[in-house]
Amino acid sequence: MKTIVYTLFTLLTISLISCKKQTKGLALNNTPHKIKHWSYQGETAPKHWAEIEANTECDGLHQSPINIIHTHTDSVKNRSDLKIHYSPSTYIEKVNNNGHSIQFDFEIGDSIFYKNDIYYLKQIHFHEPSEHKINGIIYPIEIHLVHINKHGEISVLGILGEEGNESQLFEFLESFLPLKNGDTKYIHKKIDLSSLFQHSKDYYTYNGSLTTPPCTENVNWILFKKPIILSVEEILKLKNNMPVNNYRNEQALNDRTIRYHY
Ligand SMILES: [Zn+2]
């Protein structure tokens, strides 16, 4: 069982860093053509991703992020679909500046039980400002906690952050910064992420995609309604280690339903 899970985690890691591999491949081929690689600005900004990144679903009809209009959601007075099993003895394996975000990778430990399946926490990363909006409101920061099950399916917990008092959790995470583009630090330290969920129980769910190429669809999105609080300095420290405005623009909802679980 553990071997299968490790294999799946490895596969996910490969897919998440595939863009990086393509860049390396180009350098090795010594091609005279400068092939464009996705970014958040200029000719390779999100609106061009579908053209410049081959074999993506970035022009699909079930994409993320979206603007959640609360009055347009289906309310469900039931939160039993989601159970969070986060443990204080989970280890952060490493932190990496992948040129798009700051990403912390985890050893097997934290998991969620969602729609009758177990999804293991693989990595967390950040967007500044937020990608999802609630009632049109953009938040200063959004955290994505990426989980994968044994079939390779993905569930992402999205947590919005707004400015206020300092967060001890962010003090700890940011103690490994600064980190230059492409750099990795190995950490192997215990972390308790459960404080992220202490004040926010109600959540929205919908069927969406990864918000970066390959924009893979059929991702279960679970976005908590109430933002967490962190300080302006903590937000700025993350911001200074990531590309400017590393968010994808709002995508059309199309035929999808958003549920509000309370
Ligand atoms: Zn993300």
From TrEMBL:
<dbReference type="InterPro" id="IPR036398">
    <property type="entry name" value="CA_dom_sf"/>
</dbReference>
<keyword id="KW-0479">Metal-binding</keyword>
<dbReference type="InterPro" id="IPR041891">
    <property type="entry name" value="Alpha_CA_prokaryot-like"/>
</dbReference>
<dbReference type="InterPro" id="IPR023561">
    <property type="entry name" value="Carbonic_anhydrase_a-class"/>
</dbReference>
<dbReference type="Pfam" id="PF00194">
    <property type="entry name" value="Carb_anhydrase"/>
</dbReference>
<comment type="function">
    <text>Reversible hydration of carbon dioxide.</text>
</comment>
<dbReference type="InterPro" id="IPR001148">
    <property type="entry name" value="CA_dom"/>
</dbReference>
<keyword id="KW-0456">Lyase</keyword>
<dbReference type="GO" id="GO:0008270">
    <property type="term" value="F:zinc ion binding"/>
</dbReference>
<comment type="similarity">
    <text>Belongs to the alpha-carbonic anhydrase family.</text>
</comment>
<dbReference type="GO" id="GO:0004089">
    <property type="term" value="F:carbonate dehydratase activity"/>
</dbReference>
<feature type="domain" description="Alpha-carbonic anhydrase">
    <location>
        <begin position="36"/>
        <end position="262"/>
    </location>
</feature>
<keyword id="KW-0862">Zinc</keyword>
<protein>
    <recommendedName>
        <fullName>Carbonic anhydrase</fullName>
        <ecNumber>4.2.1.1</ecNumber>
    </recommendedName>
</protein>
<dbReference type="InterPro" id="IPR018338">
    <property type="entry name" value="Carbonic_anhydrase_a-class_CS"/>
</dbReference>
